[in-house]
Design a protein that fits this description.
- The protein is of the alpha/beta class and about 325 residues long.
- The chain is built from twelve helices and twelve strands.
- About 40% of the residues lie in helices and about 15% in strands.
- The protein has a seven-stranded parallel beta sheet, sandwiched between helices.
- Helix 2 packs parallel to helix 4, helix 6 runs parallel beside helix 8 and helix 6 crosses helix 10.
- The mean pLDDT is about 95.
- Bound molecules: nicotinamide-adenine-dinucleotide and thymidine-5'-diphosphate (TYD).
- The site of nicotinamide-adenine-dinucleotide (NAD) has 30 residues, from helix 1, helix 4, strand 5 and strand 7.
């Protein structure tokens, strides 16, 4: 099988490529990635010489490039490439529309042209919007995105749906909860807080810290995508979750205790505008239809993640320099 992975130099995409090449060494992977601030070839340095792996630096909005890649043939596209951070979408919504909406449409168009057998849109629980303390979103819940990030992902999901319904493109949408684990760019809650704590920097809690997310260990998400690649049904949507709903304060305390760091590192800062209170998914469909469930207990996943960041300081210290520091200085003044 030949698979085009977009955004494979990012956090989830790189974990996915590694899993696929380990499990199916005969498969061919083409990784199309623009290498934005979040894309990092160090994430895949262990497989860069694998003859079954090819990296193409480029932008998914470049339709000529996407056509040239798909002309060579592919059985499936797994589409991870995106601007992925809510906070950044508050400062620069335009790039979210360009990459997440227009980029997805370019890929859909080319997938149709070259009759690709399966298009998997890797989306997020955030498209369902904020929930109060009860209930979970199912695949048929309404889309009520609140941030430019989630609105751009919901828009892309609707385009994917339309290419399936109108043109018969064999497309599937997946919606996953918050991922954590190795190779996550240190701007999301868990990766930022572990790396800050390791260097005794403060951990900025937005608002009251009682916001709830469901956390999934990245390998569990990748295993779900593997099932969907091989057994998912075209036209379907699959929710994917970890079954670990936690407040941000709970996560923060756990990280501090694993690293033996004091609570005094916690700093309460201004809240994120339109901060979604809670996300929660009903994942019974993927369990019943594809037999997938998460395997990594939260305590175990966090222990592994903390250990990974503690033993890969050069990976994140290189990332947390230069452009990263300039960006934070410019945009996150309240820290
Ligand atoms: P990430 O930010 O770590 O990686 C994104 C990758 O896409 C980077 O390698 C970047 O260089 C690449 N990219 C960005 N713009 C591009 C463009 N125009 N052309 C080509 N490549 C481009 O993101 P992630 O956390 O790995 O998320 C991957 C996907 O999963 C995203 O679509 C995201 O919406 C979705 N998702 C993420 C989470 C999460 O918790 N991280 C949860 C659910 C869904
Ligand atoms: P994040 O990792 O950005 O994911 P998302 O907003 O896409 O769910 O944030 C997870 C939660 O942690 C969210 O409620 C915002 C909060 N948060 C902080 O309190 N401080 C921070 O520095 C960050 C990055 C997030």
């Amino acid at each position: 099988m030949k698979v085009l992975v977009t955004g494979g130099a990012g956090f989830i995409g790189s974990n996915f490529i590694r899993l696929i090449l380990q499990k199916y060494p005969e498969y061919h992977i083409v990784n199309l990635d623009k290498l934005t601030y979040a894309g990092n070839l160090d994430n895949l340095s262990d497989i860069e010489d694998n003859p079954h792996y090819q990296f193409v630096k480029g932008d998914i909005t470049d339709s000529d490039l996407v056509d040239r890649i798909l002309e060579e043939g592919a059985d499936a596209i797994i589409h991870f490439a995106a601007e992925s951070h809510v906070d950044r979408s508050l400062y620069d919504p335009g790039i979210f529309v360009k990459t997440n909406v227009l980029g997805t449409q370019v890929l859909l168009e080319s997938a149709l042209k070259y009759k690709i057998g399966s298009f998997i849109q890797v989306s997020t629980d955030e498209v369902y919007g904020s929930l109060s303390h009860e209930g979970s979103s199912t695949e048929s819940s309404p889309l009520l995105p609140n941030s430019p990030y989630s609105a751009s992902k919901a828009s892309a999901d609707l385009l994917v749906r339309s290419y399936h319904v109108t043109f018969g493109l064999p497309a599937i949408i997946t919606r996953c909860t918050n991922n954590y684990g190795p190779y996550q760019f240190p701007e999301k809650l868990i990766s930022l807080f572990i790396t800050n704590a390791l260097t005794n920097l403060s951990l900025p809690i937005y608002g009251d810290g009682l916001y709830v997310r469901d956390w999934i260990y990245v390998e569990d998400h990748c295993r779900a995508l593997d099932k969907i690649l091989h057994r998912g049904k075209a036209g379907e949507i699959y929710n994917i979750g970890g079954g670990n709903e936690k407040t941000n304060l709970e996560i923060t305390r756990l990280i501090l205790s694993k690293l033996n760091k004091p609570e005094s590192l916690v700093k309460h800062v201004k809240d994120r505008p339109a901060h979604d209170r809670r996300y929660s998914l009903d994942c019974s469909k993927i369990g019943a239809e594809l037999g997938w469930k998460p395997e990594t207990a939260f305590e175990e996943g966090i222990a592994r993640t903390v250990e990974w960041y503690a033993s890969h300081q050069s990976w994140w210290q290189k990332v947390k320099s230069g452009e990263y520091l300039e960006y934070y200085e410019k945009h996150y003044l309240y820290r």
